[in-house]
């Protein structure tokens, strides 16, 4: 089994210590950190997503795999060239104003980080204005908006309107999700992507970013 296959297996098994050992072995053999991310970590998290979508993996499986991939990224990120780091896609995530639920948003943050995105997590109860400011300051390519209540999902529309009003709507892709959110609703409010799961959103965004 090659070291890249070892890395995929370690991440998919959620074994953080073994993941770091494989990354160290790859680095010692002269592999480029960017290649380890692109050909090792990212495909591994894609495979985890496929298993989740097929019902073979569950949320706890995703969480431990995301932790393992995060550990690997933490090891590799300081070794990336400035050029490589700057060309990574950037995503801002928030649970919208009035909503304190963060499990889905936190899961999305971990998964997108594991897929190689540079992520800014704004937390919960985030106003449209705060999202707009973060998009501009972080130079974001993607905005992920979570709403777990029917009473707060309308704020996703308000965020999109605020982005439009500030003249930055065309600069970002907006992904929405959450228990009450549907694809029809996402289309109605002008979102670019609806994700029933973070992996579904990630896969759809891959075709657009």
Automatic annotation (TrEMBL):
Q: Which GO terms describe its molecular function?
A: cobalamin binding; metal ion binding; methionine synthase activity
InterPro entries this protein is in? Answer: Cbl-bd_cap, Cobalamin-bd, Cobalamin-bd_sf, Met_Synthase/Corrinoid, Meth_synthase_dom
Question: Which example biological process does GO assign this protein?
Answer: tetrahydrofolate metabolic process
Q: Where is the B12-binding N-terminal domain?
A: 1-88
User: What are the B12-binding domain coordinates in residue numbering?
Assistant: 88-209
**Where does the signal sequence lie?**
none
Which Pfam families does the annotation name? B12-binding, B12-binding_2
Q: Which GO terms describe its cellular component?
A: cytosol
What does the UniProt keyword field contain? Answer: Cobalt, Metal-binding
Q: State the SUPFAM superfamilies in the record.
A: Cobalamin (vitamin B12)-binding domain, Methionine synthase domain
Family, according to the entry, reads as follows: Belongs to the methylamine corrinoid protein family.
Q: What is this protein's record name?
A: Methyltransferase
């Amino acid at each position: 089994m090659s070291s890249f296959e070892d890395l995929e297996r370690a991440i998919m098994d959620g074994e953080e210590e073994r993941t770091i050992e494989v990354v160290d072995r790859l680095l010692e053999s002269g592999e480029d950190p960017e290649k380890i991310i692109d050909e090792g970590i990212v495909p591994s998290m894609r495979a985890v997503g496929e298993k989740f979508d097929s019902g073979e993996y569950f949320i706890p499986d995703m969480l431990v795999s995301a932790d393992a991939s995060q550990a690997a990224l933490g090891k590799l990120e300081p070794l990336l060239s400035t050029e490589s780091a700057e060309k990574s896609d950037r995503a801002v995530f928030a649970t919208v104003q009035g909503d304190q639920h963060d499990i889905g948003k936190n899961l999305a943050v971990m998964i997108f980080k594991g897929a190689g995105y540079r992520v800014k997590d704004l937390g919960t109860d985030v106003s449209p204005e705060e999202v707009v400011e973060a998009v501009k300051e972080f130079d974001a390519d993607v905005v992920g908006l979570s709403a777990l209540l029917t009473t707060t999902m309308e704020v996703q529309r308000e965020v999109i309107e605020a982005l439009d009003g500030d003249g930055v709507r065309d600069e970002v892709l907006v992904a929405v999700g959450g228990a009450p959110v549907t694809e029809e609703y996402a289309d109605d409010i002008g979102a670019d992507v609806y994700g029933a799961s973070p992996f579904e959103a990630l896969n759809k965004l891959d075709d657009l970013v």
